[in-house]
Structure formats: C-alpha cells, structure tokens
C-alpha cells in the first residue's frame, strides 16, 4: 500500500524515498508457455512504523515465520476488478506460487504470479491452443520489507493480514496481460480498460482466510492521487496441487441480494494490533453490530464495543478510553443506498460486492487529511449466512498505517 502522496498535502516533516515493491524476472516453472512481463517503474513515499521497543525480537521472527507458513503453497484463483459502485469490470484467471528460504532473521518469502493471457485478436478462431501464462515476479518479503515498507498487520489466530503497497504495478500487469495480452501496445490508457493511477495515494491489501476450506480472499483498495476511491480488486484463491478449477465470484447484479445477508445483529470479538511484525495487541473488545433497513429505505447501523482499551469508531475517528473499569462505546450512523453503494453520514461509504463481501473507505481521504482526522479502510467477508469476518486498516492524520483490527462475528 502506498502512503498518502503530496496531492493530499502531507506535512513537510515526512521524507520520501523511492523503493518499488515489485520487480519482474523470468522463470520457466509451472507453465511451458511463459511470457515475462516488465512492470513500470515508479516512485513512492516510504515511512517506517515505530517498533514497540518492549517487544522482544524472537516474537517478531516467530510472527514472520507464521505469516510465511500461512502463505506458502500453490494458489489457483481469479482476479476481479470492480468500480467504486460494485460493478464487475474484468475477471482474470491467476496462479500464485509461494515458497520461502533462509533461517531466522534471514528468512525470505518468494512469490511468482502467473496471469492467464487474453488471446490475441489475430489468433485463429476455433483453434484449440493451450493458454499462455504471463509471469510476474514479486519482490521478496523479509523482516525488513514486512516492517518498513509493507507495514504488515498480522493475526495468526484469525488467519488474516493487512499489507501496504507502494505502487499498483503488479495489479496493472494483471489487467494488461489478462485483458489485453499480446494486443497490449503499452498505451497509458488503453481503450475499454480502466487501469490504476500511476501515482495512487493508497494501495491497501486486506486478506481474510476461509474458516471452512483452504481458500482466501485478498482485497485491494486503490485510491487515486486525490484520495478518491478509484477501483476495488479481489483475488479469490484456493490452495493445493489438485485444484481443478479457478474459484470466482458470481456477478450478482441484484443489490438487494447483496445487502440482505448483512442485515441483522452480529455479535463477536475484535483485536487491534499495531502495524509491523513487532506489532503488539493494543486493544481487544467484545462487539455488537446492528444493521437494518427502516421504512424509508435508509440503513441504520449501530456499533457497540465493550471494555475497549482503544475503540475503533466507523466515522473515521479513534476514541480512546481508560483500561480501568467497565466501558461501553456505542456508535449510531445512518446511510443511504444507491444500488450497491451505501453512503453514510460523516463521509464514509461501503461498496457491496458478490460472494457476501463488501469494502468500505472514506468518500474523500484528502478531506480527512486536511481536517487532521484519522481514517480507515475495511474488508468484510460473509462466507456463510451465520458467520462473517472483517479486517480494518487504520491510518493516522498523516496517512500512515498505524494499526489493523480483526473482527470475528456470528449472527444472532
């Protein structure tokens, strides 16, 4: 995820050090037909998260190893591109090979993404040709990159994580190879294809793992240079050598069907951790969330945290209470629905997606930064009618990812 850039008027005290997260190279593994791709170069700001000086080093190494173990394997999936209103724009088949090497502080994660190429417009019709896969090498993840550049928020028990990306180069490559393929002429704005901005203000990945099967959903918020939601991207992936098909989200365009499963009362528990592999738990709370439609068609949401040390509030704010005593925090907010886009008072919006998913973000991050308000991005996955998971990434007034919160909830 890339931090907020100059267009959002950051304070002058921040430094900017270009360091692309991704690199491209060539490999011959997995597919006999490989077309190497070269990502664009870019320059993004990087800022480190202050480590908790009280956290012992072995804990961070253990967390990194557990994160690697959770990621290692062969993943078969589908990449989905949605606009800000939840309309499916593109779908591409993908494979991801993940492995590791090294020991202790020197352990590193290697990831190679394979993208099913779109056939050329000049190819012979009805010719049964084996599909070609473009390859994209992702820069290795290690102790340094996970803490300084990616600012990981990891929940080993819930099997969830948040990551920061400095560019959208990998995501653009998936779109170019998967939609244009050999017909890609390298244009900055190809016809009939929406690409991420060259200098996005934020690229955030929130990943939730299935509680029922070896599957995960990796959701990306892409915010344009002005801090407005540009697009939403989701990888839905199954792990294993014997995966015969690529899982995908059904494009259900009925907005009522997307909102109905989310209505009702949800009870659960939340855990908040500081960003970085040294991140300590800074809050835990029992939670109750109520979402209902009134007779005017408005959405009413009430969110309650009980006994929080630091309570996450959905109006892009953080409310802190003392850790002594029995404290309950209630938040009530009203939203209006336009098809699959819900806009709440206070400038927060939620986009309803197929597969029991939704993604939330501020309507205008630049406004939050200008008003010195913290903000957050959210990903929710309702995998079954009675259970859901949510992952929230919180940013401070400078646009720095400072914490992540994981929710596990059951419908009452």
TrEMBL record:
<protein>
    <recommendedName>
        <fullName>DUF3598 domain-containing protein</fullName>
    </recommendedName>
</protein>
<dbReference type="Pfam" id="PF12204">
    <property type="entry name" value="DUF3598_N"/>
</dbReference>
<feature type="compositionally biased region" description="Low complexity">
    <location>
        <begin position="31"/>
        <end position="48"/>
    </location>
</feature>
<dbReference type="InterPro" id="IPR022017">
    <property type="entry name" value="BFA1-like_DUF3598"/>
</dbReference>
<dbReference type="InterPro" id="IPR048378">
    <property type="entry name" value="BFA1-like_C"/>
</dbReference>
<dbReference type="InterPro" id="IPR012674">
    <property type="entry name" value="Calycin"/>
</dbReference>
<dbReference type="GO" id="GO:0010020">
    <property type="term" value="P:chloroplast fission"/>
</dbReference>
<dbReference type="Pfam" id="PF21053">
    <property type="entry name" value="BFA1_C"/>
</dbReference>
<feature type="region of interest" description="Disordered">
    <location>
        <begin position="31"/>
        <end position="58"/>
    </location>
</feature>
<feature type="domain" description="DUF3598">
    <location>
        <begin position="62"/>
        <end position="240"/>
    </location>
</feature>
<feature type="domain" description="Biogenesis factor required for ATP synthase 1-like C-terminal">
    <location>
        <begin position="329"/>
        <end position="412"/>
    </location>
</feature>
